[in-house]
Amino acid sequence: METSLNFSAVIFDLDGTLLDTLSDIAAAGNSALERMGYPSHKVDAYRKFVGNGARKLAWRVLPGENRNQDDYEKFVPVLLEEFAKELNKHVCPYGGIPEVLASFTEAGKKIAILSNKPHDYAVAAVKQYLPNIKFEAVYGGRKEFPLKPEPEAALAIAEKMGVAPHQTLFVGDTDVDIKTGVNAGMISVGAAWGFRGESELVHAGANIVLDTPADLVSLL
Prior knowledge:
By secondary structure, this protein is α/β, with parallel strands linked by helices. It folds into 2 domains: 142 residues, HAD superfamily/HAD-like (Rossmann fold), CATH 3.40.50.1000; 65 residues, DNA polymerase, domain 1, CATH 1.10.150. The protein contains 9 helices and 8 strands. The strands form 2 sheets. A 6-stranded parallel β-sheet has the order 5-4-1-6-7-8, sandwiched between helices. Strands 2-3 form a two-stranded antiparallel sheet. Helix 1 crosses helix 4, helix 3 crosses helix 4 and helix 8 packs parallel to helix 9.
């Protein structure tokens, strides 16, 4: 595949794009549900639950009869506790990701990460699993910015890198990521190897959809 583009920087989503974290997320979610006496979910079900941050995940995993404000507010801190316990236990980069990221930096492209997971967790995961990659910024969910797909955090990262939005790729595996790129005026690249797949990415408006991490090199 050859898809050469004129760009100077790339902002990557984290979970489902650079790191396969589904088992961690499912383990935390199911442990929290079990603590509250609720039924758990199959790991694969979490593919549809993730993408909008921990608080939205909490709402989505609750049983229908418990999706009320009282039960939700009790459940959120339990889920966050379980996230802290399960953090980075079953995580690994997708195949070839460290080499692909190195190729981008060697080509003079600036790279950064924007995740909707809690900021400290995002930073810890990057330090543990991508320690040798130079990122210009690693942002998780931060109080000063609304979560994706709102564009503010992506635009702040582009400004920090000194790159115009239209010269920036936004790479992610969910409709949330694609819409973030669109909302920020960036080039949206879908990662079909992640949690959701090609159909959702195309429907969300991806400019390009790639099948494997190795295909990212074709953008250089």
